[in-house]
From TrEMBL:
This is Trp repressor binding protein. InterPro entries: Flavoprotein-like_sf (IPR029039), FMN_Rdtase-like_dom (IPR005025). One of its GO terms (molecular function) is oxidoreductase activity. It comes from Rickettsia slovaca str. D-CWPP. Residues 18-68 form the NADPH-dependent FMN reductase-like domain.
Length: 89
């Protein structure tokens, strides 16, 4: 198991091969202002090359989020997750 932290200033500076070869990917992101964090949105956009090459096709994926407040609109975050993950895995 590996933890890959996304650098908010350089989200493309990742070990893409590690993600490509993983059996599953678990995504975790904080909920900010009822939405995904900016760095994760940038990361998701950077996965477009993965999608074009179908590198993550049929990969097992899971997601979680956390916010400082009980409401925080985590449902909106999961909706964004679902839409994004269905596009790339």
């Amino acid at each position: 198991m590996f933890l890959i932290q996304i650098n908010k200033d350089k989200p493309n500076n990742l070990d893409w091969d590690l993600l490509d070869n993983a059996g599953a990917i678990i995504f975790g992101v904080p909920t900010y202002m009822g939405s995904l964090a900016r760095s994760f949105k940038i990361f998701m956009e950077a996965t477009s090359t993965r999608w074009a090459q179908q590198k993550w096709k049929d990969k097992i994926a899971a997601a979680f989020t956390n916010s400082a407040f009980y409401s925080g609109d985590k449902f909106a975050v999961f909706s964004s997750y679902f839409t994004s993950l269905c596009s790339i895995v």
